[in-house]
Amino acid sequence: MNDGRYAASGDDHEFLAALVAAALAETKFRLEEAAGPLKAVILGGSLARGEGTVWRGAHGPLALSDVDFAVVVEDAAARARAERVVRDVRVGVTRRLL
After folding, report:
1. Hey, how many other C-beta atoms are within 10 angstroms of the C-beta on 29?
2. Backbone torsions φ then ψ of 56, nearest 5 degrees
3. Within 10 A of 94 (CB to CB), how many other CB atoms are there?
4. In the Cβ-directed half-sphere of 46, how many Cα atoms lie within 13 Å?
5. Please, how many CA atoms are within 13 Å of residue 75, restricted to the half-sphere of its CB?
6. Taking the CA atoms of the chain, what radius of gyration do you get in angstroms?
7. pLDDT per residue over 32-81, tens digit each?
């Protein structure tokens, strides 16, 4: 159990928490704009397990874990609308988080 943490280290958790919050906010905004209200957003992968990895180099911290979201929408029509924009959402979120 990860006790709601994204990483074991407190500093790494805080760094990753800010990234997850930013990614979630943008993903939710952009998908709801296209597909309507989301039923749920589920965080998966290493961050969900509390195993997030951060590299702390000379130029500051860098997240090595990706942010994996699964999104639940209302119906098939909403899914089709979300699928039309999801690639652009992924690219935009990635650019801002690097």
Report:
1. 11
2. -110, 95
3. 12
4. 13
5. 1
6. 15
7. 999 999 999 999 999 999 999 999 999 999 999 989 999 999 999 999 99
This prediction has a pTM of 0.89
Amino acid identity, position 23: A
Q: How far apart are CA 42 and CA 24, in angstroms?
A: 10
Count the neighbouring beta carbons within 10 Å of the beta carbon of residue 31.
Answer: 23
Residue 4's identity, in one-letter code, is G
Backbone angles phi, psi at 86, to 5 degrees: -60, -35
| Residues near 92 by beta carbon (within 8 Å), at least 6 away in sequence | 26, 30
Measured distance CA(44)–CA(52) in Å, rounded: 11
Side chain identity at residue 30, one-letter code = R
